[in-house]
Write a structure and sequence with these properties.
Layout: H1 3-22, H2 28-45, H3 51-69, E1 75-81, H4 87-95, E2 113-116, H5 124-130, E3 137-139, E4 155-159, H6 168-178, E5 183-188, H7 196-201, E6 213-217, H8 228-241, E7 249-251, H9 261-273, H10 276-292, H11 303-321, H12 323-342, H13 345-352, H14 357-360, H15 388-405, H16 413-422, H17 428-437, H18 448-479, E8 489-490, E9 493-494, H19 495-566
Helix pairs in contact: 1-9, 2-3, 2-10, 2-19, 3-10, 11-15, 11-19, 12-13, 12-19, 15-16, 15-19, 16-19, 17-19, 18-19
Amino acid sequence: MSAATGRSVGDLVGKVRDRLRGDRRVDPDALLARVEAVERFVRATTDHVPEDRLGPAHTLVERAGARLALSRDHTVVALAGATGSGKSSLFNALARLDLSPVGVRRPTTGVAHACVWGPLEGANRLLDWIGVLPRHRFVRESALDGDDEAALHGLVLLDLPDFDSVERAHRLEVERLLGLVDLVVWVVDPQKYADRVVHTGYLRGFQQHRDVTVVVLNQADRLPPADLPVVLDDLRRLLDADGLDGVPVLATSAVDPAATTDLRGILETTVTQRQAALRRLAGDVDAVTAGLADLIGPPAAEDDVDRNTVRELTDALAASAGVPAVAEATEQAYRHRAAASTGWPVVRGWRRLRPDPLRRLHLPGPGTPEVDDETAPTPLTSVPDPTAAQRSAVGLAVRAVAAKSSAVLPAPWPAAVTTAARSRLGDLPDALDRAVAGTDLGVGGRPVWWRLVGGLQWLVTLAAVAGLGWLLVGYAVRALQLPALEYPMIGAVPLPTALLLGGLLLGLLVALAVRPLTSFAARRARARAESRLRAAVAEVGREHVVAPVRSVLQAYAQAREALAAAGR
C-alpha cells in the first residue's frame, strides 16, 4: 500500500476509534429493561399473534438472557466471509499463529475455530454456549510476546465456515453463529466484494447492527496501489446502499503483518470498551422491535365496548332468550294473581284452577323456588327456542362488537378479537336460560293493596252470605208455619235482602273498580321484569362476549406499551 493510502486508512481508523469510544454507549440495566419489555410483549401476544411472528422475539429473549449471564469480560468477534476470501489466513495473521487450516481445497473451514486471548478457563462456558468444540479452541498466550497481546485480553476470535459453502450444514452453522457473536468482521476480497449473495443475503440483514459490524477488503496486496482507493470507494458505495452507512471499511492483507495493524487497533478498542456484547444485543432488540412494529397501531379504547355496543348485543340476546315472551307472561301472571287475590271469593277457586302463565314457562311463581346457588343444577325454562332469525341476529351482534372494538387495530388483532368474541358462543344458550330462570321477576309477593281489596271482598261476600242465610231461615220458618220473623227494614227493603243484594253489588263494583289499577300495576310489573331480565342478559353478554374481547384489547394495550418500552 502507498503512503497516501496508508495515511487515509489511518485517518479512517482514528475516526472509527473515536466513534466506538463515544457513540452509543449501552447501559446494561437499560438494555436488560428493553429485553424484559420484549419478553412482556411476547407474553401479551402469545395467544393472539401467529407464532412465526414471535420467533425472533423468543430467540432474542433466550439469547440475551444467556449472553448477559455469561462472561462480560470477553468479546466474541467473528470473521465471516465467502469461499476464497482469505478469512482463515487473516485469522491466523491476527493470532500470529497457524491455528485455522488454510488450503486450496474449498471449502477449507468446515467448523468454527476459536482463539482466546487470556486464560481459556474463563471463556469455556461462553464457548460451550456458542458451540465451539473443545478441540477447536486455542489460547493466544506466549511468554515471548505476551505483553504485545495484553491489549486483546478478553478477545474471543472466531473463524467461521464459509457462508457460501456448497455444504448446507456449513451455511446453517454460519447463520447460527452470526446470531450469537458480539461483533462481525466481514471479510471480502477484490474479486467478489460486490457479490450479490454477500450483500443481499447477509450484509443487508445487519442494518440494525452497524455498531458491531466491520468490513475488511482482504488480499489488498493483490491490487495495484492506484486501484485500492477506487475499490474501497466502490465497496463503501455498496455498503451505503445496503443501509450500512458509517460501518468501518478497511484494507487488510494476511501476508503483510503491517496490513492488519488497523484491524487489530479496532479490535483492541472494542475489547477495551467491553461494549460490543451490549451493542450487539441492543441491535438485536432494535431489529426485533422493528420487525414487530407492524403488529402495533393506535391505542384501542377498551371502554367503548361497553358503552356503544352492549346495547345492540343485549337487544339481540334478549330476543334470543325470549325476554319479550317472559315479560308478557309476567304481565299475564300479575293479572292472574291479582284477580285471584282481589276477585270475588266465590270464583277465586275457579281462577286458581287455571295455570299460572309463569308456571307454564317453568319460571319463578307461587310454589316455585328460585335458584340462587351457582353450584345448584341449572334450572331449565320452557321459553320458546330462538328462531333462525334470532340466532342470526346474535351472530351479527357479536361480529359487530368485534368489528367495532378492533376497527383501528392492525392485523392480526381484528381476527384475534373476532375469535375471542365468538369463543363462548356455544355456552350462550345455557347461560341465557340460566339467567332468565334465575332472575327475580318481582311478582312473587302480594302487594298490600291486594290484601286490603281481598279483605273488602270477603267482607261484602260475608254480608251477602249473611243476608242469604237470614232469608233462608225466614223461608224455613214460614214453611214450618212457625211465627213469622220480623226483618229489620232499611227503608222499604228488608235488611237481609239489602245485605244479599248489597254484598253482591259491592263485590262486582269493587272488582270493576280495581281492574284499571290491576292493568296499570301489571304493565309496571312487565316493565320491571323486562328491565331485570335485560340486565341479566346484558351481564351474560358482558361475560361471554365483551369480557373475552376486552381481554384481547388489554393484551394489545400491554403489548403496545411493552413494544414502546423495548424501542427506547
